[in-house]
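Researcher: Quick test of sequence recovery. Tokens follow.
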């Protein structure tokens, strides 16, 4: 649905083609990830699924789609999607189209290996003892293991790699010994959901302590008007990076950068479509001005991502003023 928004809503007015940085920052997690969008998605998807089931069972006069359960399942899927997007540090705009304000849970990182591994284990334990589901689980499990143990070993904590390895071993043993099977697949799913809920709740509780410390540090450094955050770290659950900011500076442990937001060239850049696109997204907006040669370029970035890299950063745009 989110990719559909990129296609249906023209981003040309924001100074970029579909898929460009400004367009992505404006439309990603946009109206499809709001409360209004969620209601529309639930209604539309419930209707589509119900109509498909009605068509498939048209030969059986006694078979009727369970509309109530279809709606409940789709609502749970859509609502959980919004929750998972909120619980990280990327953010969510739930009150679009009336308000573009971003909200952040700062609980669990946008990518967490346990949110892949635990559902995979539950799915395997509740599957049939047949080569087809076993092959599918094996392929997915191999991909997750490769990503965590090798591809992401430079950023994934050692205990996370060990935990994912243990879960994968339990996945194989549980399927082989038929711990749950088809008859117990619902119990396996419930246990998996409860485990993830407890895991997320523990991170939420731990983050509250870190946030309080980050707030106190921000006030000590920049005064009562300071802003702050405790940013989640991909591959490192229960670890947050504090960020403190004033109107002039943004800082974290061992680093600090100026914002330059009062510079005339920066104000001019922020008035452009590209500048507005980044400004509505950035949680910690910073800028740099390059007036070398005959050009005047302004580099705008969100200091959440690689804060000391002034030009090479993920959420960054360049505005050429001349």
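Model:
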């Amino acid at each position: 649905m989110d990719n559909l928004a990129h296609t249906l809503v023209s981003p040309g007015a924001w100074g970029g083609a579909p898929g460009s940085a400004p367009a992505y920052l404006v439309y990603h997690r946009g109206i499809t990830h709001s409360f209004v969008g969620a209601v529309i998605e639930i209604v539309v998807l419930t209707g589509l699924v119900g109509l498909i089931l009605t068509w498939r069972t048209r030969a059986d006069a006694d078979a009727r789609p369970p509309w109530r359960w279809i709606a409940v399942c789709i609502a749970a899927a859509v609502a959980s999607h919004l929750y998972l997007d909120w619980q990280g540090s990327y953010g969510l705009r739930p009150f679009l189209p009336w308000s573009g304000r971003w909200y952040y849970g700062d609980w669990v990182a946008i990518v967490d290996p346990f949110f892949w591994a635990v559902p995979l284990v539950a799915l395997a334990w509740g599957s049939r003892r047949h080569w087809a589901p076993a092959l599918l689980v094996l392929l997915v499990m191999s991909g997750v293991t490769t990503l965590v143990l090798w591809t992401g070993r430079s950023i994934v904590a050692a205990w996370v790699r060990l935990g994912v390895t243990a879960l994968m071993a339990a996945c194989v043993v549980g399927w082989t010994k038929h711990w749950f099977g088809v008859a117990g697949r619902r119990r396996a799913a419930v246990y998996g959901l409860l485990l993830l809920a407890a895991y997320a709740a523990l991170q939420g509780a731990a983050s509250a302590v870190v946030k309080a410390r980050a707030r106190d540090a921000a006030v000590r450094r920049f005064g009562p008007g300071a802003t702050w955050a405790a940013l989640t770290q991909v591959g490192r659950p229960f670890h947050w990076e504090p960020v403190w900011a004033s109107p002039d500076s943004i800082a974290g442990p061992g680093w600090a950068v100026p914002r330059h937001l009062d510079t005339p060239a920066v104000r001019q850049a922020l008035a452009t479509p590209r500048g507005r696109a980044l400004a509505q997204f950035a949680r910690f907006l910073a800028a740099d001005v390059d007036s070398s040669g005959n050009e005047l370029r302004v580099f705008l970035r969100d200091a959440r991502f690689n804060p000391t890299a002034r030009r090479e950063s993920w959420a960054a745009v360049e505005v050429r003023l001349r």
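The chain is about 50% helix and 10% strand.
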